[in-house]
Write a structure and sequence with these properties.
With 779 residues, this protein is of the alpha/beta class. It is built from 27 helices and 22 strands. It has an eight-stranded parallel barrel with strand order 3-4-5-6-7-8-9-10, surrounded by eight helices. The chain has a four-stranded antiparallel beta sheet with strand order 11-12-13-14, with helices on one face.
């Protein structure tokens, strides 16, 4: 520090004599001013500007003294410090720059997502905003700068009036899914908030005629915490500010909220109310097995908020086929009738896998509109490539709203192209009214954004009619491929698809959407990884260590499937199994927060995050503790790190920016650590990170003998946790360990009764498939 009125004594200088006991960190700081408050202000600024790394200092103590009101007033005695022990307990402020550099250094060294794609900044592809949207003035988040849209209509008419308007308007309404289902289906849900916020004002300014933006819910909540290290609530609030004129829509899984298992009713109600307060206008509610009873708590919460409840019926099978006896037209009409009785404002056909063909769409939409007064909203995925025809057939039948996505994030496992929808309906009585020119101008930005996420891009290179066989939801296809790769099954993905169809058949031909689709996917991955014989598996499933999600499903955790239980498979699979308890008991303190109307948003969100996703929430909080707010990093730097000599500007707030750069990476030492030479605002920093590509010197795990029944082996690669100790007595079929990989959990059991002779791995360990875990001494 320095400047007018600031003097430093004790600092060395070039050419100074340094004695053996010279303390280069001992400095006297003297600040003066025309008044005492002015002198204190200079001292506070100067103390804050000291930068000392690697050792403890008295800087926090001095800052506490300078902020004390008695000190500011000059009321000082020799016992000033003794009377204020808290002065000694103040923690040093967070060094945001160094923490962010530590993260960037780690990513630069370890390349978790491979090399950075050679593309320009997507922001350069953004078109100019219309004058009325505040072009040249930054983000057009002021309502007075925008054309009023659906959100103002909802505020004016209320949810019932809004639904009546949607039912009676002539043009087909369109929901854009780019910010939620499109990237969930194509990019494994990895789209970061930064890239959404870059584009959000353009939806508001150029496409104000959209019915809604689907921008939240589904898998985005989980992935934001688990992989992107972002707070999903902050994303929702930021999007609300950026798009004040268009309804924001979310996908909610009934009692599961945004999780994979059911929660107590008060959790669903509290979640809905906080989402509505933060910015959601339209809630699309569904249940994995179309069990309307499981949707009622969420619907109840929505109705109490004054927002729109859109009740979804999940579509599967082919109701136009004479061979379809289970998922018939009568089945869907019964489900719709239950939703109408529950009080929803809009009916939705949720076609997750793109199985709804044009003839079936015409039949189903016509029947729903003839039997009910509510508007009908159709959602589909274009996996097989024919869903624009499905949309046109539905529009002819009178469908009120449909879903689409910006072209570069459309098609394949995502929704049909928004531009194609507009072009197909222009110059007809049901023209959408959206500007095709605006869509064309906006598409290059999303094309550049998609290239940024190349490592996660699992969209099919071409349409595939295999979906009509395996019936996998579009939102699951990209995630399942990533799971298969992580489990070492990437080269056998077609086998995983085939086994997905077989798993669905074995489980009773169920509706497949999160979380029921996860059950089918977990079973398919397990069968592939274990090289299981299907005939043997169906005859004697008790011999296999089924994933927890499969056991929970067969135990009725998700409800009863439409076709009933697959017997005797179910009874055999559950024989001797301990069914996990999935609905968590609410801790008293959490229940108190949910029940208290005075609970602040921050406390309520923390409780909801911890209840719904305890593991990912802990990961997120640990990342924040270690690295700070990673959402401020540009996407390229967040995913790929920095090239030598590259510098990025990181905006921390209005008028506050950091300039971060990496100059060079040193050689790995014998432990695999590298020194990374960085710059923070032009000043040098050295960060040490572990290079995980350097071969680990630890011995490889001991391999189990496949034909030795006394050996308990890991069924696949993952994180294993042992539940027994050496010397414990175990029964045949007892769980002796659990294993987790890519959100799939499974128990590991022993086929022998006896005593645990030895443990081949520590209590917690990362293992490969086939590694020896435990040796059993038989009775």
């Amino acid at each position: 520090p320095g400047g007018h009125g600031v003097r430093l004594d004790g600092c060395t200088y070039v050419g100074a004599d340094v004695s053996p006991h010279f303390d280069s960190l001992l400095v006297k700081l003297t600040c003066r001013g025309r008044t005492f408050p002015e002198a204190v202000a200079r001292a506070r600024r100067a103390v804050a500007e000291f930068r000392v790394r690697g050792v403890a200092t008295n800087i926090p103590f001095l800052q506490a003294v300078l902020e004390d009101p008695d000190f500011m007033a000059g009321r000082l005695t020799t016992s000033f410090i003794d009377e204020r022990p808290a002065l000694l307990n103040r923690r040093s402020g967070a060094d945001r720059g160094t923490r962010l550099l530590t993260y960037l250094a780690d990513v630069t060294v370890n390349h978790p997502n491979g090399p950075a794609p050679n593309i320009g900044d997507p922001r350069q592809k953004l078109p100019p905003l219309p004058a009325q949207a505040g072009a040249g003035k930054g983000r057009p988040n002021r309502l007075q700068d925008l054309v009023p849209g659906s959100r103002q209509l909802l505020e004016e008419r209320g949810p019932a009036g809004f639904a009546d308007w949607l039912r009676r308007r002539g043009p087909v309404a369109v929901t854009d899914t780019t910010l939620r289902d499109a990237h969930q289906s194509l990019l494994a849900t990895r789209l970061r908030t930064e890239d959404m916020l870059r584009g959000a004002p353009y939806f508001a300014g150029m496409l104000p005629g959209l019915l809604s933006l689907e921008a939240w819910g589904g898998a985005t909540f989980d992935v934001a915490l688990r992989f992107l290290k972002e707070d999903p609530w902050e994303r929702l609030a930021a999007l609300r500010d950026a798009v004040p004129n268009i309804c924001l829509q979310m996908l909610i899984r009934g009692r599961n909220t945004v999780g994979y298992t059911p929660y107590p009713d008060e959790v669903a109600v509290a979640f809905v109310k906080e989402a509505a307060r933060t910015g959601v206008d339209i809630f699309r509610v569904f249940d994995a097995l179309n069990d309307v009873d499981q949707m009622l708590p969420a619907i109840k919460g929505i109705l109490e908020t004054g927002k729109v409840a859109e009740g979804a019926v999940c579509y599967t099978g082919d109701l136009a086929s004479p061979a379809e006896h289970l998922y018939s037209l009568d089945y869907y009409l019964r489900k719709a009738e239950q939703l109408v009785s529950a009080g929803v404002h809009v009916l939705c056909i949720k076609d997750m896998a793109g199985l709804l063909r044009a003839p079936a769409a015409r039949t189903l939409v016509t029947a729903l509109r003839e039997n009910f007064e509510l508007p009908v909203h159709l959602h589909t995925h274009d996996t097989a490539g024919g869903q624009l025809a499905t949309y046109l057939a539905a529009i002819e039948a009178g469908v009120d709203a449909i879903d689409g996505a910006m072209g570069p994030l459309a098609g394949s496992t995502s929704q049909p192209s928004l531009g194609a929808i507009v072009a197909a309906t222009d110059n007809t009585v049901r023209a959408s009214g959206l500007s095709l020119a605006s869509i064309e101008a906006f598409e290059p930005y999303w094309e550049a954004v998609r290239r940024l996420y190349r490592p996660f891009d699992s969209g099919s290179g071409a349409p595939t009619t295999r979906v009509y066989r395996h019936e996998m939801p579009g939102g699951q296809i990209s995630n399942l491929r990533q799971q298969a790769i992580a489990l070492g099954l990437g080269d056998r993905y077609e086998m995983v698809e085939d086994l997905y169809a077989e798993a669905n058949r074995i489980l009773g031909n169920i509706v497949k959407v999160t979380p029921s689709s996860k059950v089918v996917g977990d079973l398919a991955l397990y069968l592939c990884g274990a090289n299981a014989d299907l005939g043997e598996f169906e005859r004697d499933p008790a011999r296999f260590d089924l994933p927890d999600s499969v056991i929970g499903f067969l135990a009725g955790e998700l409800g009863v499937p439409a076709g009933g239980w697959p017997e005797p498979f179910r009874a055999k699979a559950l024989e001797g199994k301990t069914v996990p308890i999935r609905e968590p008991d609410l801790p008293p303190e959490a229940r108190a927060v949910l029940a208290d109307p005075q609970s602040g948003p921050q406390k309520l969100r923390q409780v909801l995050n911890a209840l719904i996703f305890p593991g990912p929430n802990r990961d997120y909080e640990e990342a924040v503790r270690q690295y700070g707010d990673l959402s401020v990093l540009p996407t390229s730097a967040f995913l790929y790190g920095l090239a030598p000599g590259e510098e990025v500007e990181v905006a921390l707030g209005a008028g506050v920016s950091l300039y971060l750069a990496i100059d060079a990476v040193g050689e790995a030492d014998e432990r695999g650590f590298r020194s990374v030479f960085c710059r923070l605002n032009g000043q040098p920093r050295v960060v040490t990170v572990r290079d995980r590509s350097v071969k680990d010197s630890r011995p490889r795990g001991e391999r189990a003998q496949p034909d030795n029944p006394t050996h308990v082996a890991a069924p696949f690669a993952g994180a294993v946790s042992l539940t027994v100790q050496a010397g414990d007595r175990v029964e045949a079929g007892q769980t002796v360990a659990t294993i987790e990989a890519m959100k799939m959990e499974a128990p590991i059991t022993t086929s022998l009764a006896g005593t645990v002779e030895r443990l081949a791995v520590p209590g917690l360990a990362s293992v490969e498939g086939g590694d020896l875990l435990i040796v059993i001494r038989p009775e």
